[in-house]
Specification:
The protein is α+β, with helices and mostly antiparallel strands. The protein has one domain (2-91): Sufe protein. Chain: A, CATH 3.90.1010. Helix content is 34%, strand content 21%. The chain contains 4 helices and 4 strands. The protein has a 4-stranded antiparallel β-sheet. The protein is globular. The relative contact order is 0.22.
Length: 106
C-alpha cells in the first residue's frame, strides 16, 4: 500500500490517496479530495484499475488524464493526477516511496 498526500496549491483542494495492490498489477485507489472534478472522476471510473495501464502510457494519456481532458475545467497545471499516479507506482513496486515536489520561487 502507498499513501500519498497531495497539496495542489492555491485551489486548496488537498487530496489523500491510498493505492492498494495485492498482486502488483491491479490497483485499488481510495481518493479523498475536496475537488469536485476529482471526486466526479472516481465516481464515474470507479476505484479499481489495471496499474500497468495507468503507468505505462505516454505522459497525459492514461485513463485518468483522458477523463480529465474530456471533463475537467481547464487547468493544465493540476498536480493531483500526477500524485495519484505516483501512488500507483509505489503500490505496484515500480518506484521507491520517495517524496516528489514542485517548488515555486519568484
Amino acid at each position: 500500500m502507498a499513501k500519498v498526500i497531495i497539496d495542489p496549491g492555491v485551489c486548496g483542494f488537498d487530496a489523500t490517496v491510498e493505492a492498494i495492490s495485492d498482486d502488483g498489477m491491479e490497483v485499488v485507489l481510495k481518493v479523498d479530495s475536496g475537488c469536485p472534478a476529482i471526486t466526479a472522476m472516481f465516481d464515474e471510473l470507479g476505484d479499481t484499475f489495471d496499474g500497468y495501464e495507468l503507468l505505462f502510457a505516454q505522459p497525459g494519456t492514461n485513463p485518468l488524464y483522458e477523463y480529465a481532458a474530456d471533463n475537467f475545467p481547464q487547468h493544465g497545471g493540476c498536480v493531483t493526477i500526477a500524485g495519484i499516479t505516483k501512488a500507483v507506482e509505489v503500490a505496484l513496486g515500480m518506484a521507491l516511496p520517495t517524496n516528489a515536489s514542485i517548488t515555486i520561487e519568484r
